[in-house]
Structure formats: C-alpha cells, structure tokens
Amino acid sequence: MAAPPLCLSFPDVEAAYGRISPHVHRTPVLTNSHLVSLSSRSNVLFKCEAFQRTGSFKFRGATNAVLCAKEACPELPAVVTHSSGNHAQALALAAGMQGVKAHIVMPDTAPRTKLEAVRDTYKAAVTLVPASERQSAADKKLAEIPGSEFVHPSEDPRVIAGQGTVCMELMEQTEEQLGAGSKLDVVIIPVGGGGLASGNSVALRGKWGRDVKIVLAEPAIVDDAKRSFDAGELVKNGPEKSVGDGLNTQLGPNTFPVIKANVDDIYTVTEDDILRNTRLVWERMKVLIEPSAGVGVAVLLSDAFKAKYPPAQFPNVGVILCGGNVDVVDVAAKMAKLP
Amino acid sequence: MDLPMDLSTVQAAASRIYVPGGCVKTPVHTSSLISAAAGVSAFFKCEHLQRTGSFKFRGAMSAVSEVALLGPETSAKGVVAQSSGNHGAAVSAAAEAFGLPCTVVVPSTTPAAKQDNVTRYGATLVLCEPTQKARVDAAAREAGRMGGAALVHPYNDDPVIAGQGTIGLELMEQVPGLDAILVPVSGGGMITGIALAAKGLDPGVRVIAVEPEGKRLQEALETGRRVVDEGTGGRMLDTICDAIRTQPLGPRAWELNLEKKLLHPEVLSISDDEVRAAMCLTMSELKQSVEPAGAIALAGLLSPAFRELRAREESGGRPIRKVAVVICGGNADLGVVAGHIQKHQEAAGKGS
C-alpha cells in the first residue's frame, strides 16, 4: 500500500521563493569566532531570521499563503487564524501589505505586548477567547466573512512552502561564503509545529539531496516531535510549556510525514541549556534571539550532536536562528537564576 | 608628527585592517517602522557586530598594524592602551592578530563584561582610579615597564582616527546618496575619521554629533573653547552611556575640525531616558542587543532637535532624506541592560 503523497514538494518551495522575494527580507548569514570555536567546526553559518519582517521566519509562510490565496481569488476579503505568537504578527502584516484584512483569534491569556503588536502595529482585527474556544471562534469568523480563508500557522502547505525559502537563501549564501558548489554538511532547525522544519527539509533535499544532514532541535519539555519521529506515528505533548515559547505547538498530519521522510535526527535540550545558549548569542553575537532560537544553538554545542556528527567529518554547519520576539526583562531574569 | 589627515589616510588604513583575524565589513540594517517614525530613510551601521563588539577594533587594527610594520625589535615591545573598556578589548585583539604583547589599563568602575572582553584576547589587565589623569599615568608606567611599548590612545591618535574612518568608507559604498550621518561622540576619534572619509567623498554629507547631555560640545564649537570651563577637562560625564563619558573633544579631533570644518555646527544632546527608550526600540525593532552608547545615535534620530535641524536644512535648500545612524557598540552586562529596559517600560507605563 503506497504512502499518501506529502503535502508539498520542491517545486512548491521554488515557486514560493519567486513569489515572496519582493516582500520579504533576504536575511543575513552571520558568523562568530567564539561560537565557531566552541562548536569545534570549521564554519558555522547562523541564518538570522530574527531580522525578518515582524521578527521571525513566520512572515515568509504567511506571505506565501496570502499571495496564493489572492492568486486564486483576487477579491479575497480576509484571512483568519488562531495564534498568539509570531504567526499572528506575520499574518497581520503580510495580509495588510496585500490589502487584505487579517482576523486573529488570540487566547485571552496572551501577553499585552503581543496583543498590542498585532492590533496596533500591524492593524489586524483581534478576537480574544479562552484558549479552548479558539478553533470555534475562528470558524465563526470564517462563516461571518464569505470568501475569507483560514491560514494555519504550520499545517497549511502554502505556509510550509513559504518557510522553506529560508534554506533556499541559505544554500545560495553558503556558496557565496564558502565558494561556488559548496554545501553545508549539517543544517540544524528548531521544531515546534514543524512548518519551518518540514518546509526547509524539502528545500534542502530538493537542491542538495542526501549530501546534507538535517537535524532538528526541540525543547525536552515539549518533545512531541522527537517521540513521534522515534515511534513512527504522531504523539502528543503534555501540558508543560517551554521557555522557547514559539515551540510549544505540536506536529500535525501534514508536517509529520514530511519530517519523517526527510529528517536525519532530532535532539532535545533542557530549559537551562536553552537559556544558557540564548544568553551566549545575546552576549557574543549581539543578536537578540528569542529562546526558541537558542534551542538550535544548544544542539550545535551539545555533546550528543558532536559525538554523532564529529567536526572532522561534518565541518560546515548551518543553524537557523528562527526569531527575535522576546520579553527581554522576563528572560534576563530567568537567565540570572541559572546555576 | 604632522602628516596630512584626509580621505587618503583613511583609505590607507582600509588597506591594512581587513586581514584574516582582522576587521569585518559590518552590515547596514533598516526598519520601516523606525524610518516612518523618524520621517527619513534610516540606515543603521551595525558596529556592535564588529569583532570585539565595537567599532574600536578598526582604530586598533590600524594603529597596531603600523607598530607591526616598524621592525621586529620595536614591535616586540608590544602595545599599551588605556580605556573605558571597548578600546582596551580592541587593542588586545589587534595585538593578538599581530602576535604582539599587550597591557590594558581600565578604570576600576568598568563593567565586568568589558573587563572580560579585554582578557579574553590575551592582554594583561591593570585597574586604575576612574579619572583621566589616573588612566594616563598608569598607561605611561606600564609602557615603561614593558621596555618602551607603544601607547595606543583611544582617540587622540592619527592611525586610530583613520581606522575609525573606514566606517565612513563602508557607509558611502553601502548607502549611495547619503545626506547625513549621525555619530555618537566622546573623544571624537570616530566622528573625525568618518567625516574625513565621507566628506572627502561627498562634501555635502552632514556629519552630525550626538552627545550625552552635559558634554556641551555645541557650546565648545560656538565659543571656540575645546574645554568649555575650568574643571571640566578631567571630569567624566554623568551618563548611563559608560563608553562615552569623556567631557571635552580630544585635541586632535578639535584641531582637525577647526582646519577642515568636519562637524555639523549643531550637536544633538540626549538624556538618559531617551537613550533607554532607544535601547528598547533597537531590541524590539532591530532585534539587536546594544550598549547604551550604541543606542544614542538612534535617540538622536528620533529627537525633536533633529526634526528641527532637518527643517532648517530643508528650508536652506539642503534636504535630509537619507540618514545613516551609527550603532557603535554592544558590550554591556545583561543585568544592566535588562535594568534599563525595565526602567523605560515602567516610565512608559506611567505615562499612559
């Protein structure tokens, strides 16, 4: 019995790349001699999606989804989603830039700063509901506005294709920095809902095939991706939450099969390691990443990763720094408590 | 030594500083939100991403590369620097790049992050009292102890000024058609170097100083008195911008400005509160962690005084549309940074 086809393929990511390029920042790749030295590698390329519009890679997927929706329906009145995080801001701006109204359903426990960013800075309409009611509230909005479209933060194939453009750029930038024809030996990608991981795994396999190892990075406290990957089927998280708050979501029926097909390994890291490595990037690279991005750096510098992917055989590594939307005072206080 | 200081001096420095282990060409970042708030197209020159975390590495590489060219007997004696931190780290790293011994004298009040930054590149660290005189005396003593090491001054030194000027060369290449550059000012090494480069390439570019309140640079320029009154010569400014607390402009910067009219006559004077607000904005919009001095030029960009300055220039037929803002450094203790953000958030909360 053949497996059902994956929800997207390499041509979808290539098309997304062409489609969204005029609207997104081609973010820089930075390096840092201290972190490279700690990693024992020859080159570490940090892809800085914290500098993307709205402060995270989410803007890519949101833009691709809005543009595709508009291509299919030029009179598209609105897009709807439920999110309190980076996807909400991303969709709000992406829709606004295309003259489409964004309706965001947010949990009534969402931090004031995120609510204000979505509503006041990016001019989306916001409905606040208890977390358990978010899907029904979104459905209600969709029914109220004929022709409107739902854009899921990670399961929507248009979103996944858009996220894959991170590595489309990174692969080009690798050649610019390391020489024509160069490839990275490993790329480390944080995983939450799996949109970034699945989209970029398709991009990397599409252009570099199996020459590159794809390693995902996840907080141990919300390790549904690792457990699902090891079990071969979708497994859910418990109620605990990570300080890497962008990664508190779970894999779904679209993202999981793509990850299963393309990814080589998934490593998990402790909350302390996440905070420690986020601080390392703040202090040494001066880039204000959110703790979700610190997860990838923690894996890069972990003993487990070094043991299985020794620097001598895997000298050139890429790490996606996925976002920079962080409450600095709150996280700095947590860092101050580290042993 | 009275060698000419001009664009060609800066270009010569540029030929020495980008060696392996040396300076990097830093990126320019933009933010549509900040540009809209400021009413200009703003371009942020990210010197906090320079090696050692501040622009000081350019001047240090320029100066130390010259010492290295003096012949093995002289250069083996090494270099000495006195510094509030960033220059010390820069000279330490530059000395390491050229394999020379190095001692750095810093005030005892220097933040831990900056002290660590010096020693991680291999220099010997010596602490002194937090006054200009104590720094200068201690540096001279150390140079003697090393058998005649070369003193690398943080700003009153032509090769250092020329090195800092490479910021201007990069900017003019990265942002064609610049109308103005906002530059934090303390001893004046960076602003002088940038002006020599930028105005050497386009005399119409306005190089505008941004100072912590109390420096009184505009008063100094207007009265022609480098040290505005007795007692301010050795005093350190009371400002959260720990990197730029020198009160008077350095003598060489002053002299070059008199000769070549490098600085725009109006200086933007910025309060601690404005600096804190700008640090928060740098974090939330540019996603960068900067030290207080690193945010002061952004505070200048958004200040009412700059709005007025632009209006005057506009009515004089010299509009300001494209502005570069120099983010000069990012070396700060995390706890201190968090404290500044918290203070700003509390003040902002009270206002609403």
UniProtKB/TrEMBL annotation, chain A:
Taxonomic placement: Eukaryota, Sar, Stramenopiles, Ochrophyta, Bolidophyceae
Alphabetized PANTHER family for the sequence: SERINE / THREONINE RACEMASE FAMILY MEMBER, SERINE RACEMASE
PROSITE patterns, A to Z: DEHYDRATASE_SER_THR
InterPro entries registered for this protein in UniProt: Ser/Thr_deHydtase_PyrdxlP-BS, TrpB-like_PALP, TrpB-like_PALP_sf
Protein name, per record: Tryptophan synthase beta chain-like PALP domain-containing protein
CDD domains to which the protein is assigned, alphabetical: Thr-dehyd (cd01562)
Signal peptide extent: none
Family per record: Belongs to the serine/threonine dehydratase family.
Keyword Aminoacyl-tRNA synthetase appears in the UniProt entry: no
Domain annotation Tryptophan synthase beta chain-like PALP: ranges: 20-323
Listed cofactors: Mn(2+); Mg(2+); pyridoxal 5'-phosphate; Ca(2+)
Entry annotated with the keyword Ribosomal protein: no
Domain of life: Eukaryota
Keywords from the UniProt entry: Magnesium, Pyridoxal phosphate
UniProtKB/TrEMBL annotation, chain B:
Cofactor(s) listed: pyridoxal 5'-phosphate; Mg(2+); Mn(2+); Ca(2+)
Keywords: Magnesium, Pyridoxal phosphate
Superkingdom classification of source: Eukaryota
Pfam families, sorted: PALP
InterPro entries, per database record: Ser/Thr_deHydtase_PyrdxlP-BS (IPR000634), TrpB-like_PALP (IPR001926), TrpB-like_PALP_sf (IPR036052)
Keyword Magnesium: yes
Coiled coil location: none
Parts of the chain that traverse the membrane: none
Domain Tryptophan synthase beta chain-like PALP: 24-329
Sequence similarity: Belongs to the serine/threonine dehydratase family.
Listed name of the protein: Tryptophan synthase beta chain-like PALP domain-containing protein
Organism: Tetraparma gracilis
